[in-house]
Amino acid sequence: MSFLGKPVKFIKEVRAELSKVSWSTRQELIGATLVVIVATFLAAIYIGGIDLVLSKLLSLLFR
């Protein structure tokens, strides 16, 4: 195979595989994005709360 033949073959195979992919609908994508945003927000609140409690405990302990 020539020097340029391999990349061309690779791109053709990639396009063929991408045509087999089951792509999400717009509504599914929006729903999944909202789930990620809410989960991230809740995790941030939880970690922030733990940090606040532990920092207060340590400040009382080391006074």
* Oligomeric form: single chain
Which class of secondary structure composition applies to the elements? Answer: mainly alpha
In sequence order, what are the helices and strands, one letter per element?
HH
What shape does the CA trace take? elongated
As a percent range, the share of helical residues equals over 70%
Mean pLDDT: 94
Poorly predicted regions are none
Q: With helices defined by DSSP (H or I, 4 residues minimum), what is the helix count?
A: 2
Radius of gyration over C-alpha positions, nearest whole angstrom: 25 Å
Number of strands: 0
How would you characterize the largest beta sheet?
none
Strand content: under 5%
Distance between the termini: 75 Å
Short description:
The protein is an all-alpha fold. Helix content is 83%, strand content 0%.
3D architecture notes:
- There is one protein chain.
- The protein has 63 residues and is mainly alpha-helical.
- It has a domain at 24-63.
- The chain has two helices and no strands.
- It has helices spanning 5-20, 26-61.
- It is elongated.
- It starts with a helix and ends with a helix.
List keywords for this structure.
63 residues; mainly alpha; 2 helices
How do the helices and strands line up, and which of them pair or pack?
Elements lengths: L4 H16 L5 H36 L2
